[in-house]
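Dear colleague,

Thank you for sharing your sequence with our group. We've completed the structure prediction you requested, and as agreed, I am returning the results in plain text so they can be pasted directly into your records. Please verify that the sequence below matches your submission; if there's any discrepancy, let me know and we will rerun it promptly.
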Amino acid sequence: NYLKDTFLKNKTMNILILLLSLIAFICEFIYRESLFKSSLEIEDYLQKSSWNFTIYIFKIITKVGGEYLMEVPVGFILIFFSLIKSSVFMTGFLFCLQFHSMMKIWYGNTRPFWENKDLYKGICDGGFGNPSGHSMISTYLYSTLYIYLQDLKCFKNNTNVNIVSLVLIIFWILLIIYSRIILGLHSLNQIIYGTTLGLTVFSLEIVVFKLNEMPATFYKKLFKEKTYIISISSCIIFVSCLSIINKFIFNSSFDIEKYNKVINEKCGEKYPQYRRFNNDGVFGSFCIFIFMGMYFGQILFWYLIENSRSIICCRC
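Please find the predicted structure tokens below.
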């Protein structure tokens, strides 16, 4: 009822968001090959016309923004915001990690620097390229962070702070996205697709269904109802199995030997096998077990809370 009522409050806008997302997905299928081919030429031009220092800066941005610095906003949300907001964020964040890893196996699309040896700039990646995980995750993460920041005192009713923070967040997302292009790690279609997916997850969670504004009483009931527990637990088990099975049913005809040679030449033969092709997708998909821990942890948490209250009441 909460999801239904929230959706119907702004039905026209919510339907429009879903339609735009659907159109973007369809366009990705139509223009995938043409955009990939164009990307090889565009990225070759960008690299040849850029200074070595510029390339070096974007190598830092792609590492910091995509791997090392990402823990900072994640930790900030978990520490400074309510359990409901943190849980909603982590669900979306882990979904992005899980879903993009599985989709890379489904599509089995190569990366630009695999196809053009001149595009390699010292950043290795052996997993398939579509969609761009950096684009999807950073778009979702920083968009959600901006919305959450509106709850803090220094942001409420402060237009200047809101505008500056919005500009900085958009600028940082664009820098991360551009770093993937200029380094030859992703093509334009992979970047656009990843960004669209990130915005879709953000829109569904925060804009359409407003899960971050869920009433506390409703949120607590979710982890007590047997129907909910059984259905979500079944989904987790199914996705966990699917993550592993994907490795064996997709990309059986992919020329692994050819692209293994490319990766060996550029990254060295010691580049780990678990970070290559389907193995990389399965490795990334294992974040479903983190979600499993978070989910069952909350069931146990609310169970212990209720039991401790009943024990206290009995003693009284």
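Summary note from our side: The chain has a mean pLDDT of 90.

Kind regards,
the structure core
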